[in-house]
Design a protein that fits this description.
By secondary structure, the protein is of the alpha+beta class. About 25% of the residues lie in helices and about 30% in strands. It has two domains: about 5-45 and about 135-314, 4-Layer Sandwich (Glutamine Phosphoribosylpyrophosphate, subunit 1, domain 1), CATH 3.60.20.10; about 45-130, Ribosomal protein S6/Translation elongation factor EF1B (Alpha-Beta Plaits, 2-Layer Sandwich), CATH 3.30.70.60. It has helices at about 15-25, 70-85, 110-120, 145-150, 200-210, 220-230, 235-245, 290; strands at about 5-10, 35-40, 50-55, 90-95, 100-105, 125-130, 135-140, 155-165, 180, 190-195, 250-255, 260-265, 275, 280-285, 310-314.
Length: about 325
């Protein structure tokens, strides 16, 4: 099942956190196991923003956690020490929940893969996103609950994508929730509705290249696949078109970068997608009701063709 939503404001900023929350809440009937947001905020672009988790939320409430908070405290100390050893200067550290943190960092090295691998060598630690505008936030519960838990309705930016999940092929936990960061490519995120039938073959190829996977969710493959394509010199659109040939299954996915938003629909077009497009706003979702939460007035929408790829710039 699951539901995906995305929007991009072209030439201006808006309260994209609140807008995406409305879109995803409208899709909550498609899944309330977890909800995730990838938001591209209005930051100065000089420093890196890292969203990090040091444990899992295993219940509906934000205080229902698997391990004692002291375990998380110790992990955070080790992470902070390791980042300083790697030449990172912690400009701001915010502990949102016992298991969830937000950092603003100045990094001497731009090798995000090496940096990420060493930070994630700490047991129980996962980088949810690392970039200069992207912030990935995901947790258990519906869109309204997650938005309230992390105060996302106050974030102003240009574009965002999100996911309402009904867990079918992997666990109900944060690591299996969407969006997925396009490790180790800065500011790339993906949400997906569908199934990939050649997941394991493609995963093994990417792992041999040194790419990391934090879950067994097939959607993570798309994010890592596109990041690998772009690291090899392909444009976002070229990588997306390649994915339609090389990834098997039925799927619709959205991908965002620091300055663009894209959608891809497989050749069988079995997964729904409704799209609205104007000169200054593009909004799309698994159902029109998501778009109506942002644009309640009379609008024209359409369904993209099978095998279609589209990319919009801010």
């Amino acid at each position: 099942m699951c539901g995906i939503a995305g929007l991009i404001h072209r030439g201006k900023s808006s309260n994209v956190g609140k807008e995406l929350q409305g879109m995803l809440q409208a899709l909550k009937h498609r899944g309330e196991d977890s909800t995730g947001y990838a938001i591209y905020g209005d930051n100065d672009g000089r420093n890196f923003i890292m969203r990090l988790k040091v444990g899992e939320n295993v219940g509906e409430g934000s205080t229902s956690i698997m391990e004692d908070v002291s375990v998380y405290d110790e992990r955070i100390k080790v992470v902070n020490s390791k980042m300083k050893e790697l030449g990172a200067k912690i400009l701001k550290e915010e502990r949102i929940l016992p298991y969830s943190l937000r950092y603003e960092l100045s990094l001497d090295s731009q090798d995000l893969r090496d940096f990420s691998q060493k930070v994630e060598s700490v047991k129980g630690v996962e980088i949810l996103s690392l970039g200069k505008s992207l912030e990935v936030v995901k947790d258990l519960g519906n869109a309204e609950a997650v938005c309230g838990r992390y105060n996302l309705d106050k974030i102003v930016g240009t574009h965002a994508i999100g996911h309402a999940r009904m867990a079918t092929e992997s666990g109900v936990d944060i690591k299996s929730a969407h969006p997925f960061w396009g490790y180790p490519f800065s500011d790339v995120s993906v949400v997906h509705n569908g199934q990939l039938t050649n997941y394991w073959n493609n995963r093994r190829v990417l792992e041999h290249k040194g790419m990391r996977f934090m879950s067994d969710c097939d959607s993570e493959l798309i994010a890592v696949y596109l990041a690998d394509k772009m690291r090899s010199g392909a444009s976002l659109e070229e990588g997306m078109k390649d994915s339609l040939r090389e990834l098997d299954g039925v799927f619709t996915y959205f991908v965002a970068t620091k300055d663009s938003l894209g959608m891809a629909k497989d050749t069988m077009a079995a997964k729904p997608l409704v799209l609205y497009e104007s000169d200054d706003l593009v909004a799309m979702g698994s159902e029109e009701i998501a778009i109506r939460s942002v644009l309640p007035q009379e609008i024209d929408t359409y369904d993209p063709f099978n095998g279609e790829v589209k990319v919009w710039q801010i």
